[in-house]
Amino acid sequence: MEKFSGDGQRPITIELLKEKPLPKHIAIIMDGNGRWAKKRGLPRTIGHRYGVESLKKIIESFVDLGIGYLTVYAFSTENWKRPEDEVDALMDLVVEFIDKELDYLDSKGIKVNPIGYIERITGLTYEKIMTAKERTKDNTVLTLNVALNYGGRQEIVRSVKAICQNVLSGETTIDEIDEEFFANTLYTGGQPDPDLLIRPSGEMRVSNFLLWQIAYSEFWITNILWPDFKQEHLWQAIYDYQNRQRRFGGLKS
Ligand code: IPE
Ligand code: IPE
Ligand code: MG
Fold first, then answer.
1. pLDDT at site 7
2. Ligand 2 atom index nearest CA of 79
3. Which residues line the pocket of ligand 2, CB cutoff 6 A?
């Protein structure tokens, strides 16, 4: 589907990408693990395991590029509908990922920032998530938002409830509530909105991801399944993004 050919003259390299403004924030829907496994006659959980390997490599690419924000969709509020053993395997993978990677993430200055209804996650997974968050909270090189038990609608309703509480207690007036105020109450408060949203596995939908924040994000969809997603695909997505024209409702400049 994509051509990995840059401008046709020069291959896409880090230097080429750095010639133009890079996206400040990229969001990725890490999808297609199940299909990847099925194609190979393997259990879905093996697909998830290879998906984690893709994530590790992509994080390294972000560090190399110097992009400050990465949000990855790891588990949605709707994913609880899956069989219990798959949900358990996903939660165990979170523990394994943190156990194996926390030293590396911290050493690179990466802030692990879980976003979503994390309190609903229990046991060891919850403890590890909180440990990773606490240990890396002062890191500034890359904010890695890990969307876990995340749903865009849940996030918005949560904000609305918090604002209502503050209005009732007199802490906030209704006039103070504008778009910026609202955005700051979301899990991603204070962060730039994603410039680019990447969805592997070819699905043409948002699946309840960052509903508010992606209002003006550029979409890049590929048939590549997440476990096959490599740095070259990330670079291609960024290159394509850099060669699009964003208008934000205005006119061509
Ligand atoms: C994405 O892969 C990972 C999660 C949703 C946790 P899927 O498990 O959705 O893979 P497909 O879409 O079935 O291929
Ligand atoms: C979105 O993928 C959620 C994650 C990647 C974590 P899904 O596989 O759950 O989305 P749908 O069901 O295809 O919309
Ligand atoms: Mg899927």
1. 60
2. 9
3. 29-31, 73-76, 79, 203, 205, 207
Reported as type and span, the H/E element at residue 72 is: strand 69-76
Q: How far is CA 49 from the centre of its chain?
A: 17
pLDDT for the residue 169: 98
The answer to whether position 171 is within a domain reads no
* Measured distance CA(48)–CA(226) in Å, rounded: 9
Do the Cβ atoms of 87 and 79 come closer than 8 Å?
A: yes
Residues of the chain with pLDDT under 70: 1-8
Ligand nearest to the CA of 48: 1
pLDDT value for 9: 72
**Could you tell me if the CB of 72 is within 6 A of ligand 1?**
no
Ligand 1 pocket test: pick from 30, 31, 36, 45 the residue with the most ligand atoms within 8 Å of its Cβ. 31
Paired strand residues for 206: none
Q: In angstroms, rounded to a whole number, what is the distance separating the alpha carbons of residues 21 and 242?
A: 7
Residue 165 lies in a domain: no
| 114, 83 Cβ separation under 8 angstroms | no
pTM exceeds 0.85: yes
Nearest CA to ligand 1 atom 12: 32
- Domain harbouring 207, CATH code: 3.40.1180.10
- Rounded to the nearest angstrom, the distance between the alpha carbon of 109 and the centre of ligand 3 is 30
Contact 177, 142 (CB under 8 A): no
Indicate left, alpha or beta for 123 from its phi (over 0: left) and psi (-120 to 50: alpha).
Answer: left
Domain total for the chain?
1
What pLDDT, on the 0 to 100 scale, is given for residue 8?
Answer: 64
Residue 15 belongs to some domain of the structure: no
